[in-house]
Amino acid sequence: MAYQINGVNIPQSIYDNGTAVPPDREALAVNGQGTAIEPRLKTFTWAWNSLSKADYEWWTQTILADALSLRCAARLPNRTWVETAYSVVIVRKPTTAGLKYGRYWNVELTIEILS
């Protein structure tokens, strides 16, 4: 698979070691007729017990260029794990418990899918 952020392939080492949770369909509310209303924003999350310094910096430096977020296009799995092209996503800076023994621990990345 060739998942991408802003036209850049996500390295296999990042893809293989994380737990990805693609956007699921959840009801935001129910209208007066009992029909579920879906939120416009969908969230893709990716978590790692640990990431190498190089893989963490791939997100923070290569993709985000030291910014807190990036608005771009992406190719990611949808809720049924089919690779899907999204025209607008917001990649947020990953959170972490810190750097220890050359690895970042308890890393979580959020990608908000707008369209």
Structure commentary:
With 115 residues, this protein is mainly β. Helix content is 15%, strand content 48%. It is built from two helices and ten strands. It has helices at residues 12-17, 53-63; strands at residues 4-5, 8-9, 19-21, 29-30, 36-37, 42-52, 69-77, 83-92, 98-100, 103-113. The strands form two sheets. Strands 1, 2, 3, 6, 7, 8, 9 and 10 form an eight-stranded antiparallel sheet that branches. It has a two-stranded antiparallel ribbon with strand order 4-5. The longest helix is centred in the middle third of the chain and has 11 residues, at 53-63. It is elongated, with a radius of gyration of 15 Å. The chain starts with a strand and ends with a strand.
Give a brief rundown of this model:
By secondary structure, the protein is mostly beta strands. The protein has 2 helices and 10 strands; from the N terminus they run ββαββββαββββ.
Looking at this protein, list some descriptive labels.
115 residues, 8-stranded antiparallel β-sheet, 10 strands, elongated
Question: SSE layout and pairings?
Answer:
Layout: E1 4-5, E2 8-9, H1 12-17, E3 19-21, E4 29-30, E5 36-37, E6 42-52, H2 53-63, E7 69-77, E8 83-92, E9 98-100, E10 103-113
Antiparallel strand pairs: 1-2, 1-7, 3-6, 4-5, 6-10, 7-8, 8-10, 9-10
Task: Please count the helical segments.
Answer: 2
Q: What is the helix content?
A: 10-25%
Largest sheet: 8 strands, antiparallel
- How big a fraction of the residues is strand? over 45%
Overall pLDDT confidence: 92
Please write the string of helix (H) and strand (E) elements.
Answer: EEHEEEEHEEEE
Q: What is the end-to-end distance?
A: 21 Å
Helix and strand content put the structural class at mainly beta
> How many β-strand runs?
10
Unreliable runs: none
